Amino acid sequence: MAREGPAVAEEKLEALEVGLLLEGVHRRYGYDLRDYSPDLLRAAVRKVLAEERMGSPTALLERILREPACLERLLGEFATPNGGLFSPSGFYRSLGRNVVPYLRTYPSVRVWVMGCGGGEEIYSVAALLQEQLSRPFRVYATDIHESIVARASRGDVPEQDPETAERDYLQAGGRKSLSAHFRNAQGKLLPSAQLRKRVVFSSHFPVTDAPFNEFNLVLCRRMLASFGEPLKARVLELVHESLAPFGFLGLGGEKDILSSSHRAAYEPIDRRYGLFRKVKP
């Protein structure tokens, strides 16, 4: 039998140590990251190791078991990347054209954004609905840990080019000006107080936590990319249970619905942007 080279042996050792790290995090804190994407797990662990100046996942596990703050730094690497405000603009334009008219038929509307990350998607959706819905509505924004949620709840949207954000807002179907919803503070676009009042923030770990409300629209467009296929299927089960009859679901693309055992319960609204409507229980 051919002997393994040093690189292969080191890779296998790293995978073993990462597995032990994830098992320790689960048993100590209850966060089950074991079915996340292997590439994401490896990248997250390597980044924290570099930041903490530690030599191995085993050393990181020892620190995490004794220092919850170190766990927060690791979980922060799993925050859902949101992209920029109103990006891609075509998704929000489709949401306004194909979903909002149906939402106007309800006396009030509840929206769930899974994976609030830096807050860009939350406030983009809230601004769009504030302009177009003419109904009471609430956006529920969640992510896997309180520290991630706290950053988004402060409204400290990551820096981006205001001109690009304005362009995307208008292309998304914006009816006013971006300044009606966001204030430019040294390159950071801060949501208005009125916009922030529309949002309820909470930590929610979709791997283990149960549904907490019934929603007319659920968006998990970027979070699913973090999961392996078995976990993706479980999360879509949670989403299905949370979605009201004839509610709408926004995914990263058409292929994501194939991971759901309830895929026959959905009809496509816009295949390009992964928008579906629940038409069966």
How would you describe what is shown here?
The protein is α/β, with parallel strands linked by helices. It has two domains: 6-76, no CATH class; 89-278, 3-Layer(aba) Sandwich (Rossmann fold). It is built from eleven helices and nine strands. It has a seven-stranded mixed sheet with strand order 5-2-1-6-7-9-8. It has a two-stranded antiparallel ribbon with strand order 3-4. A hairpin with a 4-residue loop joins strand 8 and strand 9. It starts with 5 loop residues before the first helix and ends with a strand.
At a glance:
It contains 11 helices and 9 strands. It has 281 residues and is an alpha/beta fold. Strand 3 and strand 4 form a beta hairpin.
Keywords for this structure?
2 domains, 281 residues, globular, two-stranded antiparallel ribbon, alpha/beta, Rossmann fold, 11 helices
Topology:
Elements lengths: L5 H24 L8 H15 L4 H10 L1 H9 L12 H10 L1 H4 L5 E6 L5 H13 L4 E7 L2 H8 L8 H10 L10 E4 L2 E4 L1 H4 L2 E5 L11 E5 L9 H14 E8 L15 E5 L4 E4 L3
Parallel strand pairs: 1-2, 1-6, 2-5, 6-7
Antiparallel strand pairs: 3-4, 7-9, 8-9
Helix pairs in contact: 1-3, 3-4
